From TrEMBL:
Matches recorded under Pfam families: RrnaAD
Name listed for the protein in its UniProt record: Ribosomal RNA small subunit methyltransferase A
The gene coding this protein: rsmA
GO cellular component: cytosol
Gene3D superfamilies xrefs: Ribosomal RNA adenine dimethylase-like, domain 2, Vaccinia Virus protein VP39
Catalytic activity: adenosine(1518)/adenosine(1519) in 16S rRNA + 4 S-adenosyl-L-methionine = N(6)-dimethyladenosine(1518)/N(6)-dimethyladenosine(1519) in 16S rRNA + 4 S-adenosyl-L-homocysteine + 4 H(+)
Length: 289
């Protein structure tokens, strides 16, 4: 079978083993920066396949480190903009840029402090293996973007497995809560695969998993703030009936009645659509004065 020349990635240049790159540039993993590097080329290629074919696509990578995942993304034919906070990694990334001329732009800085929509441009796929605290903060930021559909076409993010499960959890799961509702309101969220802790150098204490999200169309008339306040109140007392947990939130109990949800139910039994319907009823009642 002949590869389609429009979508097939270009031939890959020969690159030195990642272990050599790390040793040559003295990139001992920094705990403070949450550095756990991936060196297995097959695993890195597998992560780079999660967003779909990348030939000719733009990718925004957060935290490239020594560039293992960056190699896989470039090898798949992507045009990559990468932001890295650790200046020690910049010479290794510059070498990688030389091997893929005009395909890699590296920004030295903090991903939490830059305007990534302007840097990456509309339609970029976001791919990252990040320290978990930074990853969750960025995920929430990307999901709560005020403009929808957002600038990103998809998110492919490595998380602690327990956090990944909270993102994709369904009604009645122990992991079902605020993060699941935010993620599944705004996106179609799937757990792509789990990654054993031994795949990282150094290995973290827990297992990891790659999560894939693509933006979902938004039902009109629901404010992010209302969803957040509603789920905070409901899951603040997740074992209590809604009539108790939502008592203090103005308009919430009336909205349950409007939507036809039994106030004797508990938060974890409500689907994402039901939360959205309650939030919409609260907003409508407020707008009506
Ligand atoms: N992508 C590489 C890999 O898969 O082997 C490195 C992953 S390592 C878990 C996380 C990387 O994110 C490190 O290179 C670290 O320096 C970088 N980093 C941590 N916090 C960051 C931030 N706020 N902004 C940009 N990069 C950050």
């Amino acid at each position: 079978i002949l590869a389609n020349p429009d979508t097939a990635p270009p031939p890959r240049p020969a690159l030195p083993p990642l272990r050599d790159v790390i040793a040559r540039h003295g990139l001992s993993a920094s705990k403070a920066l949450g550095q756990n590097f991936l060196l297995d080329g097959q695993l890195l290629d597998r992560i780079a396949r999660v967003p779909g074919p990348l030939a000719g696509e733009r990718v925004y990578e957060v935290g490239p480190g020594p560039g293992g995942l960056t190699r896989a993304l470039l090898g798949a034919g992507a045009q990559v903009v990468a932001v890295e906070r650790d200046d020690r990694c910049l010479p290794a990334l510059a070498e990688l840029g030389d091997a893929f001329p005009d395909r890699l732009r590296v920004i030295a800085g903090d991903a939490l402090a830059i305007d990534e929509a302007a840097e990456a441009g509309t339609g970029a796929h976001i791919v990252a293996n990040l320290p978990y605290n930074v990853g969750t903060a960025l995920l929430v930021r990307w999901l709560t973007a005020p403009v929808w559909p957002p600038f990103w076409a998809s998110l492919t993010l490595m998380f602690q497995k327990e956090v990944a499960e909270r993102i994709v959890a369904k009604t009645d799961d122990d992991a079902y809560g605020r993060l699941a509702i935010l993620a599944q309101w705004r996106a179609k969220a799937t757990l792509a695969f789990t990654v054993h802790r031994s795949a990282f150098v150094p290995p973290p204490k827990v297992m990891s998993a790659v999560v894939h999200l693509v933006p979902a169309p938004q039902p009109a008339g629901v404010a992010i703030g209302t969803i957040e306040a509603l789920t905070a109140a409901a899951f603040g007392q997740r074992r209590k009936m809604l009539r108790q947990s939502l008592k203090a939130m103005p308009g919430a109990l009336d909205a349950l009645a409007v939507v036809g949800i039994d106030p004797a139910r508990r938060a974890e039994t409500l689907s994402v659509d039901e939360f959205v319907a309650v939030a919409r009823a609260i907003d409508r009642a407020r707008a009506a004065g």
